[in-house]
């Protein structure tokens, strides 16, 4: 592709993770400049103008989020960096932390300076041992070089950065679950408001941003707002809810493609182009059947929908929850949507934190029904019941505290809506005797290790 | 828990060095409760599990109620409480991208080979088997994590090799 990567520019250099290589490539130059002559308020304004939207899944405008912090707060203000990356299909934060931890760190320091945060916690999923090693080494190097700690580069600004390790729970990635987890409690998402910007970690004003988001901050400071806005897509005409999709984006590719991996492209690249040019097409010479555009929670696209552009607005027109994490998983023509649905329902049932009854019970019922279908005891009626669950659970319909249930619901309802014949045929084929029955069927035969 | 036994157990489970490492996390946070997860990780790493007595000792060290520590511990599937883990803790990813590349078959294969169900440990204390939800390594599917090491693009043959290389 002619597109020149920015976020991934460093990763192929030898020892890309070290301070020496990072500095040789111009690293921490922006930080020096900002600390000399840019006020935090100017920096917030710059990020607002850039149109940067969060890369963690929800696409919330970053500068706007920062501007919700109370003015003149005596502090402390906390900055949480979301490195939980547990959304199935999602890999890009891992690549960034392993290969270019100083880029991430410079982004964190700049973001903390802008928000006047005095402590940052990087919430890292436990499984990322190599990321832990690399990020901790980068933090140590930065303290030694005076980029972290007291009175950074003589500016009077002080910042501490700590890594906080998770313990294998998806819901820790939800921003208030993450906050509870840092506080040492079970990661039960909080009812909002109050929003973290007003009352977050340790009841203080708090910002939560994704690893890739803060990395973008670094490059906006480096190259300017005009550069950032020259990449990506402007707001959709006639769609007041869309502030545009600007800047570079990291895309993951997994599933049935020839070259799975982490790729960088402008926001708005068509999914088909990503799969063909970056992923080398579908494996084994097969055709694609479906794809998940941005992590399991975003729902499913059919092959006919592969021309969808991966920006913050278009996936919704194709019925998806949103762009999500931009990490695409492709399924070939031989893959069963019953298996996908079963896998997804099992995931959400396992990861529901259990606070909200519609989520706890809904994900469990969905798993029971799809297990029954998979085991050849499904009834056509089950599809209606599943659809009912898909439509009724989540923070968007207003029945749950956090978005985990929305993800579960979205996957269920998009699969049901887009692959009805396959599901019906599966049920009729595997349960020829009883598929039309309506009364509750026989006992469960779920192969659920959970 | 038996009161007079627990006094002696205190010195047995968390030694001075481990206590020092746990206390070392206190300056990072404004509350001692925030040290619960780091403390659980440290104890888990040292003992291979966090038995109830360790919960009591962590609580005492952080000036919390044992119920608060237990509450946190029980939320995170990562921590074991009944018996120490095996030397090799094997996490087999069963989520979407790995399942699409036969990750679940690998889990079944390991269950058969080791005669274990996920969550169990071999009698000789060598291997603990777990399923994992997405390990964040979907580009390397099917992926397996063994303690701290990620194993990529796994096959049954590679699993055989791994198993025979472990003492
Ligand atoms: C169940 C659930 C899991 C989430 N997991 C993550 C995650 O692993 N990483 C992440 O950055 N955001 C995750 N999010 C989104 C966060 O709540 C939050 O929106 C994000 O971290 C904000 O950062 P951003 O504005 O920079 O995107 C998750 C949300 C939900 C509902
Ligand atoms: S929606 Fe589900 S995961 Fe989120 S708080 Fe409610 S029960 Fe927990
Ligand atoms: S699905 Fe297995 S590592 Fe992501």
**Which structural category fits the helices and strands of chain A?**
alpha/beta
The CATH C-level name of the largest domain in chain A is Alpha Beta
CATH class of the largest domain in chain B: Alpha Beta
Instruction: Note poorly predicted spans of chain B.
Output: 1-10
Uncertain residue ranges of chain A: 442-450
How many domains make up the 3D coordinates of chain B?
Answer: 2
Q: Given the helix and strand composition of chain B, which structural class is it?
A: alpha+beta
Oligomer: heterodimer
| Bulk shape of chain B | elongated
In short:
The complex is a heterodimer of chains A (450) and B (167). Chain A is an alpha/beta fold and 450 residues long.
Can you tell me about this structure?
The complex is a heterodimer of chains A (450) and B (167). Chain A is of the alpha/beta class. Chain A has three domains: 19-230, NADH-ubiquinone oxidoreductase 51kDa subunit (Rossmann fold); 245-332, Ubiquitin-like (UB roll), CATH 3.10.20.600; 337-430, de novo design (two linked rop proteins), CATH 1.20.1440. Chain A is built from 17 helices and eleven strands. Chain A has a five-stranded mixed beta sheet, with helices on one face. In chain A, strands 3-2-1-4 form a four-stranded parallel beta sheet, sandwiched between helices. In chain A, α15 (380-392) packs antiparallel against α16. The radius of gyration of chain A is 23 Å and the shape is globular. The relative contact order of chain A is 0.11. By secondary structure, chain B is an alpha+beta fold. Chain B folds into two domains: 3-75, Arc Repressor Mutant, subunit A (Orthogonal Bundle); 88-165, Glutaredoxin (3-Layer(aba) Sandwich), CATH 3.40.30.10. Helix content of chain B is 47%, strand content 11%. Chain B is built from eight helices and four strands; from the N terminus they run αααααβααβββα. Chain B has helices at 3-13, 16-23, 36-47, 52-62, 66-75, 96-99, 103-114, 156-165; strands spanning 88-93, 127-132, 144-146, 149-151. Chain B has a four-stranded mixed beta sheet with strand order 2-1-3-4, covered by helices on one side. In chain B, β3 (144-146) and β4 (149-151) form a beta hairpin. Chain B is elongated, with a radius of gyration of 18 Å. Residues 1-10 of chain B have low confidence and may be disordered. The interface between A and B is large, with 58 and 48 residues. The structure holds flavin mononucleotide, iron/sulfur cluster and FE2/S2 (inorganic) cluster. FE2/S2 (inorganic) cluster is lined by residues 93, 95-98, 134-138, 141, 143 of chain B.
């Amino acid at each position: 592709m002619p597109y020149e990567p920015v976020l991934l520019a460093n990763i192929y250099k030898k020892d890309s993770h070290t301070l020496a290589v990072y500095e040789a490539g111009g690293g921490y130059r922006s930080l020096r400049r900002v600390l000399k002559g840019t006020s935090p308020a100017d920096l917030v304004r710059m990020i607002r103008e850039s149109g940067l939207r969060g890369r963690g899944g929800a696409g919330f405008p970053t500068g706007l989020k920062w501007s919700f912090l109370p003015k003149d707060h005596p502090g402390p203000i906390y900055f949480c960096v979301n490195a939980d990356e547990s959304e199935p299909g999602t890999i890009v934060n891992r690549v960034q932390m392993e290969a270019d931890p100083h880029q991430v760190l410079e982004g964190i320091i700049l973001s903390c300076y802008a928000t006047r945060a005095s402590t940052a916690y990087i919430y890292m999923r436990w499984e990322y041992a190599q990321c832990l090693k690399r990020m901790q080494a980068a933090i140590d190097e930065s303290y030694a070089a005076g980029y972290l700690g007291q009175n950074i580069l003589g500016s009077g600004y002080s910042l501490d950065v700590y890594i906080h390790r998770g313990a294998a729970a998806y819901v820790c990635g939800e921003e208030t679950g993450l906050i509870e987890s840092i506080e040492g409690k079970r990661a039960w998402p909080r009812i909002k408001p109050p929003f973290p910007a007003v009352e977050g970690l340790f009841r203080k004003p708090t910002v939560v941003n994704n690893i890739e988001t803060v990395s973008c901050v670094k490059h906006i400071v480096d190259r300017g707002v005009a550069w950032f806005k020259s990449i990506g897509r402007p707001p959709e005409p006639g769609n007041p809810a869309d502030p545009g999709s600007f800047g570079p984006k990291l895309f993951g590719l997994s599933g049935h493609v020839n070259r799975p991996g982490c790729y960088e492209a402008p926001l708005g690249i068509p999914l088909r182009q990503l799969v063909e040019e970056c992923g080398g097409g579908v494996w084994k010479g097969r055709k694609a059947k479906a794809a998940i555009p941005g992590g399991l929670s975003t729902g499913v696209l059919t092959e006919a929908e592969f021309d969808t552009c991966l920006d913050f607005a278009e996936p919704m027109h194709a019925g998806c929850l949103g762009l999500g994490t931009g990490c695409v998983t492709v399924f070939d023509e031989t893959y069963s949507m019953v298996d996908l649905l079963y896998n997804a329902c099992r995931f959400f049932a396992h990861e529901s934190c259990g606070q909200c009854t519609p989520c706890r019970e809904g994900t469990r019922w969905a798993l029971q029904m799809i297990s029954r279908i998979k085991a050849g005891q499904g009834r056509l009626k089950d599809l209606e019941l599943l659809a009912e669950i898909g439509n009724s659970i989540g923070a968007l319909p207003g029945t749950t505290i956090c978005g985990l249930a929305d993800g579960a619901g979205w996957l269920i309802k998009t699969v049901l809506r887009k692959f009805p014949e396959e599901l019906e045929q599966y049920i009729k084929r595997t349960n020829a005797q009883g598929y039309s029955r309506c009364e509750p069927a026989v006992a469960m035969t779920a192969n659920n290790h959970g | 828990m038996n009161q007079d036994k627990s006094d002696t157990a205190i010195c047995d489970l968390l030694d001075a060095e481990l206590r020092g490492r746990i206390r070392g996390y206190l300056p990072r946070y404004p509350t001692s409760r925030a040290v619960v997860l780091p403390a659980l990780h440290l104890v888990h790493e040292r003992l291979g599990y966090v038995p109830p007595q360790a919960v009591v000792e962590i609580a005492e060290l952080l000036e919390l109620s044992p119920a608060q520590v237990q509450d946190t511990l029980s939320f995170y599937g990562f921590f074991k409480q009944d018996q120490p883990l095996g030397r090799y803790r094997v996490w087999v990813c069963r989520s979407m991208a790995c399942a699409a590349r036969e990750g679940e078959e690998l889990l079944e294969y390991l269950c058969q080979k080791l005669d274990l169900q996920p969550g169990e440990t071999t009698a000789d204390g060598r291997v603990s088997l777990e399923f994992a939800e997405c390990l964040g390594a979907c580009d390397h599917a099917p992926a397996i994590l063994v303690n701290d090491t990620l194993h990529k693009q796994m096959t049954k043959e590679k699993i055989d090799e791994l198993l025979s290389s472990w003492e």
